[in-house]
Amino acid sequence: MKKRQYFQPLAILIVLLTMISCSNKAPETTAAAKANTARSVLILTGKQVSSLGIKSSPLTKSLMGMSIFANGMIDVPPQNKSFISVPFGGYIRDIKVLDGMRVAKGDVLLVVEHPEIIQLQQDYLEVQGNMEYLKAEMDRQKALLDKEAGSAKNYQLAKSNWQVAQAKLSGLSMKLEMANVNVSALKNGTIQREQKIRSPFSGVVTKVNTNVGSFADPKDNLLEVIDLQHAHAELTVYEKYLKSLKLNQLVNLTFVDSDEKTSAKIFLIGREIGPDRTFKVHCHFENLPKEIVPGSYLKAEINTDEMEQVVVPTESIVNFGGKDMIYVTTDNRHFIPVEIEVLSTQGDKTAIQAINDMDFLNRKYVSKGAYELLSTMNKEEE
Questions:
Q1: How far is CA 363 from CA 59, 327, 329, in A?
Q2: Do 111 and 148 have their domain in common?
């Protein structure tokens, strides 16, 4: 009972001190908030406004095209890329190309050899050599059957043997063609030890993944040939611009590694929105660059059709804290920097979009003297 009486005054004292401490901090917090708010508003006298040459105007809309900026890279459709492999495997005896080398359709890329290919050629010649006998035997049995001097069974057997051999010869011929063996030369009795692997189309060699003397399995991709005639620009565009794009829109491209410029037109607009809220836009080059390299990065400017947009003089836009801003005012004395998004620039005019439309409500903007206001604000903050 005595302990409870002893601690009760002490507890009351702690509560009172805590309340006093909180009440002392509240004004400081409010003062800090007012100070932060004050920094975003620049207040000038009429004389200062006049000396700085500041003029304000109402926001107006006019017809102006929009420029959409995007990043992208050079890509080639899957149907225009070919991985080169050896259907039956083999030892690499010679490599005729290097990574980056241009080749024409039919050029020799690799030379390989394999005992199995030699055996296939031997089987082909054996079957081919036996075909004449089997055909003659079938004809002989047919003649005997017609004269009723032979049996139908013997004729059917001879016919079956000839048809089986014909099917085997056809199958061997297709396998040899897959192995890049010259069947026409083989029919003349020439067995080829080496097989030449040729390019399926004209293009550029990439990704050489083998060496002379190594053994290549059928599943190995030895090298890749890309048809550059079908190269295109694949752009990554933000979702908010999807409705502004359409087919055949003009796109200005700049290659990052060389600063070379070219133009293209949109031929395909993707409809799948990725996790980063972007989608793909594919563009065909109007004039294919000479030294185009798949995978090269580029920057793009997509020019949209004219539409009604908020347009201001380019000089009225300032960069403050890494963001594009304009100053708005209601009385030509209180000036507030408002963040905007630049849509496009044509000459001395720029189309803009408000980050928050409420910032533009019932306000004018500083059409002249924006840089002077920015300089004055920076000096006051210093």
A1: 8, 10, 6
A2: yes
